[in-house]
Amino acid sequence: QLQASGGGLVQTGGSLRLSCAASGRIFSSYPMAWFRQAPGKEREFVAFISGSEGTTYYTDSLKGRFTISRDNAKNSVSLQMNSLKPEDTAVYYCAARAYLHTDNYYNQHTYAYWGQGTLVTVSS
Predict the structure, then answer these.
(1) Which residues is 37 bridged to in the sheet?
(2) What pLDDT band is residue 31 in, cutting at 50, 70 and 90?
(3) For burial by CB atoms within 10 Å, which of 15, 31, 65, 67 has the most?
């Protein structure tokens, strides 16, 4: 029900835009987020966006470089990534909640739906 795309290989300092298309149920009112998992590391929170209000939260280290947005009419969420660094290399996952609350947005266990992941590789 969630399909992530847009990953690829990019050089340090480059940009990528990830997209996540939702289908099968109405996601337009529910919070969505991006997480990532680097090789050998645990999955970590990247960015969050609420439903109708579009309130956003980011992990502190990514503020100013990453921007999350959503298009409720298209049931999709995007992640614009700028000034990419080798440490941004990871599989990026989009996720959606099954309820409207915005608390604990950084906790991956509060998300009911997950995309398959898209690989982002940043070369030095």
Answers:
(1) 91
(2) very high
(3) 31
| Residue 122, helix vs strand vs coil | strand
Least confident of 27-31, 32-36, 55-59, 86-90: 27-31
Query: Using CA atoms, how far apart are residues 47 and 97, in angstroms rounded to an integer?
Result: 13
98 and 112 in contact (C-beta within 8 Å)?
A: yes
| Count of beta carbons in the 10 Å neighbourhood of residue 99 | 10
Tell me the CA distances in angstroms from 104 to 6, 17, 49, 97, one per residue in order. 27, 25, 12, 11
As a whole number of angstroms, the distance between CA 120 and CA 16 comes to 8
Longest dimension (CA), the chain: 40
Q: How far apart are CA 39 and CA 43, in angstroms?
A: 10
Query: Dihedral (C-alpha) 56, 97, 78, 14: value to the nearest 10 degrees?
Result: 80
The closest alpha carbon to 93, from 104, 108, 71, 103, belongs to 108
